[in-house]
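Reader question, answered in our methods column.
A reader sent in the components of a multi-part assembly and asked whether the whole thing could be modeled at once rather than chain by chain. We filled in our standard form and ran it. Here is what they sent:
COMPLEX SIZE: two components
ENTRIES:
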Amino acid sequence: MQFEFDIQGGDFSSAGKASSDIKKVLKQLNIDPKIVRRIAVALYEAEVNVVAHAYKGVMKVDLDAQKIKIVLEDEGPGIENIEKAMQEGFSTATDEVRQMGFGAGMGLPNIKRNTDEMLLTSVPDQGTRLEFMVRF
Amino acid sequence: MGKPNLKKLTEDLGFECLSGEALLDRIPQSAYVSDLLSDVMGKAHADMMWITSQVHKNIVAVASLKELSAIVIVNERPVEKELLEQAEDEEIVVLSSNLPAFETAGKLYNYFLGVENSKS
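And here is the structure of the entire assembly that came back:
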């Protein structure tokens, strides 16, 4: 099963829509609720990252009986130092975004913690590609 | 005495129910206080109540994805109708407390502790 979602940078009011749709599908497939919740956390954080940092992005979801694989590709400022970005508490979010309670520097660590495999690559001034996988 | 549901808890502690009136039979397991959404995503557990002063729509998505029992908005902060409509759609209970986060959390903490003690 495959799904694709467009994500608009800055559109906080729609953030979480793709995650919520995928979560519903996983529930219908009777995936273990604990695993569904892990995937939901990773999906949401990834979605919010695109909304908070990029101009626009695409989320592709590939689902089979054993696993879910998600790839997010965005056009945006990219990440200069991936190692730093992975540190809990590090964030480049704007004050406006922080006031909403985002930008705590926990998004990427949350994704890492809740997935079985995660790969983050980026070209500064072009965009970021995030790929993660969770086994059922 | 069994664990109280949200209806009883809301009455006992004087919270106001803003959305999800039909869902107050949920039985909450503890609570989490934070205004950082990723903190809640990372650390809160399903069926917890979430005490926060954030009142934008993304709190509904977080509560839904984490399957939280209810959101408790502190300081009687005004909540937009749009948020409450979305909360109804996504089956999220939104409660309002007229106290700041510290007192709201303190009241809830004592309440849950009282329930635990009365069981033993």
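What stands out: The CA atoms of residues 33 and 51 of chain B lie 5 Å apart. Strands of chain B lie at 16-19, 31-33, 49-52, 70-73, 94-96.
Send us your own complexes using the same form.
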